[in-house]
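Q: Predict the bound structure with cytidine-5'-triphosphate.
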Amino acid sequence: MVNKIKTIVLGVTGSIAAYKAAELASRFTTEGFCVNVIMTESAQQFISPLTFRNITGRPVVTTMWDIASEFSVEHVALAEAADVVLIAPATANIIAKIACGMADDMISCTVLATRAPIVIAPAMNDNMWSNSITRENVARLVKRGFTFVGPARGRLASGKMGLGRLTSLDEIFGITLQVLGRKGDLAGRHIVVTAGGTQEPVDPVRCLTNHSSGKMGYAIAEAARNRGADITLISAPTTLAAPPGVKVISVRTAEEMLKAVQDSVKKTDALIMAAAVADFRPVKAASQKIKRQEMSELTVELEKTPDILNEVRGNFIRVGFAAESRDLIANARDKVKRKGLDFIVANDITEKDCGFGTETNRVTIIDGKGKVDELPLMPKDEVADRVLDKLRGVLK
Ligand code: CTP
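A: Predicted complex:
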């Protein structure tokens, strides 16, 4: 959830993908944004302004010449109020107009007049996208600091497959939040986050793992991205989609995670170990599938995995997580000391709505000086922001 009310100008231009902008408007509105939609005349051939008006609860700008509009008194009012301008879908035409500095419709006019960052999500025929004129226009805008997201490859309006489809709404949403947070309180920081439960192979089809969903680590990565940090997310297998704008390194075992963490912390400000690393692994994984028919019983000898957080030390902040089922504070305190942590985020997994797979968590943050901060039950994305608040204090 975005803390302060932010204003987004969503420019919608004439593409078959215009209907998808309604979903974007809905997502930004749900996240607490004030969404001001501007539609070109062509966009209105594809989707009605009424749709956006109802979704956003705001007037929709459809022309430069509406004297009744609250924005028309000063044609740059929208531009000045914007924290970010997103054009989705953006046609080759609007990109060309913006690249030339034209201002003959409300979208190009707003883009020219705003100081807010601008995100463009193109959608067009693949030949139009690959045309050298469009390429030059895009290159010119990128050089000027515009952010392009997409297009994606897929089925186009013409029916053929190609590069030109509006990219996924998750991608557009995530990148817009990242652009918006570029100057946030973690700008210029590099943070390594680990997530998910590692898998330790028993044989080619079986493994030892745990119930970690990866949600907490992914929420931290996204929240830190939205506050301007440069993120490397080292993820054990999860069902979660890679957060847009985040460098993801996929690993499977504790050993692979150790190697990835060691490689990634060379220039980092902080390591946040939210991963549930398996503590034990089979001493030797069978190279062939163990056949049930051939055994009456099976004993697997286990050995300890490396303690990544304990081993990886350096000139950066180290944050641990502790999922406990008893003696929460005492166990977490012991881990802070034993692993030399700046702080630990502990939670009792036996409590309702907490821990593995849930959308919420109730955590206690304990720092190296023994300070205990018990937080109430809250959504994992809010927990993520509270953890980052603590991190920011320590980074200072
Ligand atoms: N951790 C790690 N490597 C391991 C085990 C844990 O880096 N092999 C990290 C976790 O990512 C977490 C912290 O250490 O941030 C604490 O993990 P936890 O499993 O609670 O602690 P353990 O050290 O494994 O102790 P115990 O199993 O006795 O609770």
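A: Residues 187-395 form a domain with the Rossmann fold fold (CATH 3.40.50.10300).
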